[in-house]
Amino acid sequence: MANVNPNLRLRGLLLWWRKWGKKDWAIAATGFSTIVFILTYLSRRLPLPLDPAATASTTDNLVGLTLLHNARDRGALCLDGSLPGYHFRKGFGSGSNSWLLHIEGGGWCNTIASCLERKSTALGSSKYMDHQVRFSGILSHQSSQNPDFFNWNKVKIRYCDGASFAGHPQHEFKNGTKLLFRGQLIWEALLDELLAIGLFNAKQALLSGCSAGGLATLIHCDDFRERLPKDATVKCLADAGFFLDEKDVLGNYTMRSFYQDVIQLQGVAKSLQKKCITRKDPYKCLFPQEIIKETRTPIFLVNPAYDFWQIQHILVPDASDPQGYWKRCRMNLRYCNPSQMETLLGFRSSLIKALSDFQQKKEGGLFINSCFSHCQTWMAETWHSSTSPRINGKTIAESVGDWYFNRNMVKQIDCPYPCNPTCYNMDFT
C-alpha cells in the first residue's frame, strides 16, 4: 500500500493549512485551496512510479487559459468581478465530436469574511489563475494514460464563485461589500460559449468534476444533458463530490451547518432541484444523496471510502478535537488506534448506506475504494497507470470507460481499509 509522503518543500504549506483550519471559514477558502495546490504539486513533482507515457513532455501537456468572452455583458463574473475562465484542448480523430468537461474543485465560502479572503486567490479571481495548466489523468491526450477519452475535446473549467456554480446576484450585498455571487450565470455563459465552439455538435459528452466541482457536476448534470443534442450520449461523473450529512465525533452536524450558511449567503437554493426544495429544507438538497435521487442523466460516482477531506472537515473538524486525540490519525490512517478505526469504519458504512438506493439504478456507476485520498480522476497516478488504485483488477479509468460505453455494469465497492494494497494513501504527518 503506497503512502504518499509530502517532501520537505511541502511541510510549510501543510503547517499553514492546519493553522488556517482552526478558523471558522477553513472549509471554504484557504484549507481546501491548499489541498488542491498540494495535490497539484504532488502530481507534478513527487517521484512516483509512472508509465513512460505519463512522464512524457510536460510542455506538451500544458493548456492555455481562455477568459469567457461575453462574460461581462452577461454579468457572469468571479467573486471579485474578474472574468471567469477555462482551458480548452481540441479533440482529434474519432474524438472530434466528443467532449469531456471537468470542473475543478476548491471548497466553498460561507461568510463575507471567507468570500473576501477567497477573492484574492485563484478560487475567486482569474487575476490569480495560472495562464497554463497541465492536462493529465482524465484530461490527458495520451492513450496510455487515458484509454477511452484521450482524443476527445477537453475543457477544464476554472472555479471562481465559491458556491459550486450555484450562486445568484440577488443575494449580493448593497452595503459596499464588493462580492459578486454569479455562479449560476457563469455556468450558463460558459456552456453557451462551449456550445458555440463545437459542443452543440457533440455525439458523446461527459461532464465531470472534482470535490466542489463534483458537487457542481451533480447540480448541473440534467441541465447539461438538456442543452446538448437529443441523440448524443450524455453522462456525468462526480469525483470525491459525495459529501455526507453526518455528525462529527462530538455529535454536531458541522457540514449541515456549513451548507446552510452557503445557501443563505449566495442564494444557492434557486439552483437546486425544485422537487427537493418544496419537500425539504434547502440545505438537504445540496447534499448529493438527495441530488442523485431526482437526477435523470446517468451518473458515475468515484469516491474514496476514507476521503481525507471529509474525515478532516466533516467527521473530525478541528473544533471537535480540542485535545488532539485525533491529530495523528486524521493525518495518516496508520496512526489510528482500534477505537478510531471503528469510528472510521462507521463513516465508511454511512457512505455505503447513503448509496444503497443508487446501487439499484442500472444506469449508475460506482467506484468506491478504500484509499485515504480525495480527488482521483485528474492525476495519472490515480486515474490510470501501472500503479494506480484498482478494484477487482480495474483502474478508475477502465471502470469509467466500461460504464460510459456500456461494456459492463460497474458497481465497484472496495473492502474496508487497509485491504487494498494498490491505494495511494496520503500522509500529512
From TrEMBL:
Cellular compartments annotated: Secreted, Cell wall
Pfam families from the UniProt entry: PAE
Main localization (coarse): secreted
Stretch forming the signal peptide: none
EC number(s) given by UniProt: 3.1.1.-
Keywords, in A-Z order: Cell wall, Cell wall biogenesis/degradation, Hydrolase, Membrane, Secreted, Transmembrane, Transmembrane helix
TM ranges: 25-42
Taxonomy, superkingdom: Eukaryota
Record bears the keyword Cell wall biogenesis/degradation: yes
Family of this protein: Belongs to the pectinacetylesterase family.
PANTHER family: NOTUM-RELATED (PTHR21562), PECTIN ACETYLESTERASE 4 (PTHR21562:SF83)
Function noted in UniProt: Hydrolyzes acetyl esters in homogalacturonan regions of pectin. In type I primary cell wall, galacturonic acid residues of pectin can be acetylated at the O-2 and O-3 positions. Decreasing the degree of acetylation of pectin gels in vitro alters their physical properties.
Protein name, entry field: Pectin acetylesterase
